[in-house]
Amino acid sequence: MPPPPVLTSFLAHEPATGHRAGARVVAGGAGYAVVEQAEAVARVLAAERGPRDPSRVVLVAPRAPTWSRGPRGVSLRPFAAPDGALDELAVRYVEDRAWRDRFRELLGGGPVLAHHLPAARVVEALGLPSVVAMHSLWPTVRAAVDGGPPGPRADACARLLGSAAAVVVATRAERDLLLATAPAGVADLAARVHVVPLAPSPWLRRLARRDGLARRRAAWRARLVPGAAPHDVVLAVVGRVVPYKGVLEAVASFVRVARAAPRARLLVVGPPTDAAYAARVAAAVEAAPRDVAARVHLVGPQRLEAAPLASDVLVHLSRIESFSRTLDEAALLGRPAVVAASPVLAERVGRGRAPATTSDDDVLWLEDLSPAALDAALLRAATDGAWRSACGAASARRVEAVAPDAAARALLAVWRAVGDSRACGSS
User: Fold this and answer.
1) Which domains does the chain have, with CATH numbers?
2) Which pTM value belongs to this model?
3) What is the CB neighbour count within 10 angstroms for residue 238?
4) Alpha-carbon torsion 106, 110, 115, 118, what sign?
């Protein structure tokens, strides 16, 4: 019998936000996506081999204090991660012989599906065949999209592009940009880059269909947006409070249009990862007129379903994310979105045609992020109930059409191809 798939990620080391998978509590942020993906691969294996098959997907990740028990079908191999930034931890693990030996024991002989750069660097240092999946854009692609420099991770990513047995990206556009911007000398990259669209959360899909959803919505709305009336319109910015998320721009725009939309409120949900930037966001709220500032709610990190349940419209202003969980979370619950146009995000929201902002689109797609354009978009989102209803319904149809385990099957196929290639090479 072939060995079980092995996944590894350090993302569970991020501060936990109480995200849930049924009765199981796991780590927050992208770490939740990794655990959910492991469960999806396990479901595919169970369907192939039958429920009596004892094999399980292996997940190697930092021991998360919020894990109450292991995900279904997944064998956890946790390690105690010391405090520190993830990139710094990766360097420490690679340089320390005891840590290297520990990871060889945890990861086995490969191939290993490594999520995000720090885990991939450790797998690379151990000489194991790897399938590398990034939860954010590769630095060269990010530079091509937002016009900035590649950043401090560029050299490490260039080495990974050369050494990884396979690379997984979420959209065709990201694959094209990755190939176009890859450093010179990276061989056979086109054959090693695979597009595996990430699927919406099956747990959120079940939540959207569950009885009592209206009651849960009212409870979260009262908790996160105190003082909001039932007919108020809550616009939500969700994710880490960092510059590329556009949180400050959203707050500034809301302050400018708030008096023209007296029933609107702005909810900002997410950890203040960049403390200096978070302070600027808070200062912008404090500087607003008192009646406007009272309608801006900065609530910090919350549970997975909190923001889409408590809000009416998602405001997503990041151009550099090829997969946004928040967009799918909102869409599964029928929430429309105001979205900054990005070539790597277009496929995620069905933007295969020229951008438009008509009422039959499932997002308000913004090519122009000037203050005037953003103000117009937020004002429409806050005041046009017909648009919200039509776009929310279209968003829900879009994500409902995605087969829950299709991405897991595609990912498993890439992992197996790497294993088969390695077996043929050693025979």
Assistant:
1) 6-199+403-426 (3.40.50.2000), 202-400 (3.40.50.2000)
2) 0.81
3) 24
4) positive
